[in-house]
Design a protein that fits this description.
Length: 385
């Protein structure tokens, strides 16, 4: 059997499918440039700079011996903890996944049939597109305006008889824009009337101090067509454990559970996530840190000639470099020489080669980033002159 024979046996949707590019490739960078991981300041992955909650770390340490047992396949204790955390939902409204990305693919495998269309505003998180294609569906892209905002009427005008789902990321990755609850509800209500599902990725909603004014978690028991995705990666710093969850009406959760892989979430991830939700001091401190350092970093970046800095409600900032004379890849490579890793956004559909995304980190790290960017851009200007 040769390679062509293997391709002929594979599902046609998978043969030419391109995987999504992500930030946080810190291990790959470490090996490629022969640098210790601890020496790299990672501004490419939008993860809490405080690291995991102390309560999560303690839960992991005190439960290490229990890894000899299978994990709870239904993550019952964690689902109960999540329901108590939000107060407006029940454990039966929740599905837990091996990272929120697993649940994107679970969702599309359950609801996308061959030929179905999925409306995706761009630029946004790339896995929605890949998951839709993997399931045999067709992405329909709707470009955001110049300030990366969504017009509900423009989005809904693209709905037709083939539309199965509308994907929204709120706050949006990589732009940091935050839609109002009213605008999102307008989309959900209109979609409901046309039998269209709405998938809302709220992975960065935890960073919003008054998140209940923007999140639609309290609405899932009212709208049959609404699915909300949440993550323990970004805010709670558990990226390496892979754990996320989805919230929807009980009927939708029941369907999704039919496609869930048994024992999909490891035991330590479950206990760490449950402990994180109980750490109120950690939650409050994280929100204060991100708000303070985001304002600082935005202000300092705007003072650097040639940079266009977009406002953000998340723990990252989108920056346009085109007036500096450097592309995003060029700046990324120059910063790596100083042990700084940023996100080259040229892989995001809807963005060109002049955008970078910068995560919010500690004051010391943010100050170093500003110093090095100034140095690199001044050097680039001198070399052109």
């Amino acid at each position: 059997m040769n390679m062509n024979s293997l391709k002929n046996l594979a599902r046609r949707e998978l043969v030419d499918l391109k995987q999504c590019i992500h930030g946080g490739e810190i291990w790959e960078i470490s090996q490629k440039y022969k640098v210790n991981v601890e020496e790299i300041i990672d501004f490419s992955a939008n993860i809490n700079p405080l690291g995991p909650s102390p309560k999560s770390l303690e839960a992991i340490k005190s439960n290490l011996e229990n890894i000899k047992f299978y994990p709870d396949s239904n993550s019952k204790d964690l689902r109960i903890a999540i329901a108590k955390h939000f107060k407006t939902i029940k454990p039966s409204n929740i599905i837990v996944g091996n990272g929120s990305t697993e649940l994107i693919y679970t969702f599309t495998r359950v609801f996308i049939n061959k030929g179905d269309e999925a409306i995706i505003p761009i630029p946004t998180f790339g896995e929605y597109e890949v998951a839709v294609k993997e399931a045999g569906g067709r992405p329909v892209y709707v470009e955001l305006n110049q300030e990366f905002n969504i017009s509900p009427s423009n989005l809904l005008s693209r709905v037709n008889y083939k539309t199965k789902v509308i994907f929204l990321c709120n706050p949006n990755n990589p732009t940091g824009n935050l839609m109002s609850k009213r605008d999102v509800l307008e989309i959900v209500e209109m979609a409901s009337r046309r039998d269209v599902l709405v998938f809302i990725d709220e992975a960065f909603m935890d960073f919003i101090p008054n998140e209940e004014k923007f999140s639609l978690i309290s609405e899932v028991r009212k709208y049959w067509n609404l699915f909300i995705l949440r993550s323990f990666t970004k805010f709670f710093g558990l990226a390496g454990l892979r754990i996320g969850y989805g919230i929807a009406c009980e009927e939708m959760i029941d369907l999704l559970l039919k496609a869930k892989i048994p024992w999909n979430v490891n035991y330590l991830a479950q206990v760490a996530a449950k402990a994180a939700l109980s750490d109120i001091n950690y939650i409050e401190e994280t929100r204060k840190l991100i708000a303070r350092e985001r304002d600082f970093l935005c202000r300092k970046l705007k003072q650097i000639p040639g940079l266009k800095v977009y406002p953000s409600h998340a723990n990252f900032i989108l920056v346009d470099l085109r007036n500096t004379g450097l592309t995003s890849l060029q700046l990324k490579r120059k910063l790596l020489k100083y042990g700084i890793l940023i996100r080259d956004c040229s892989s995001f559909r809807g963005l060109d080669e002049y955008y970078v995304r910068i995560a919010i980190r500690t004051r010391e790290e943010n100050e170093k980033l500003i110093r090095i960017i100034r140095k690199v851009l001044e050097g680039a200007l001198c070399s052109r002159n």
